[in-house]
Backbone:
């Protein structure tokens, strides 16, 4: 089922992304906990991140909320239209 908000035109909603991450990586020493995660969450949607213990869910959320830094080699990460690498403060403010 798809639910759409009526406050903005459908074309605007389709183009807007709340979160995008390409090649999200994180390692602790030689232990890779995230290895190339791609994620796209459209604005105005409800998103659930499910997986078994140790799958990297908490690590991904901590990176996206700027609590920890992504690993070397991570691609582009945007939250609320702000680039995580260059505008982390704006992400924290939203």
Residues:
């Amino acid at each position: 089922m798809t639910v759409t908000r009526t406050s903005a035109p459908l074309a605007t909603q389709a183009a807007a992304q709340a979160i995008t991450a390409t090649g999200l990586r994180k390692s602790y020493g030689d232990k890779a906990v995230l290895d190339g995660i791609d994620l796209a969450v459209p604005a105005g949607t409800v998103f659930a991140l499910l997986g078994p213990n140790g799958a990297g869910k908490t690590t991904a959320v901590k990176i996206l909320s700027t609590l920890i830094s992504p690993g070397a080699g991570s691609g582009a990460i945007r939250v609320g239209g702000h680039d995580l690498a260059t505008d982390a403060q704006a992400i924290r403010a939203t």
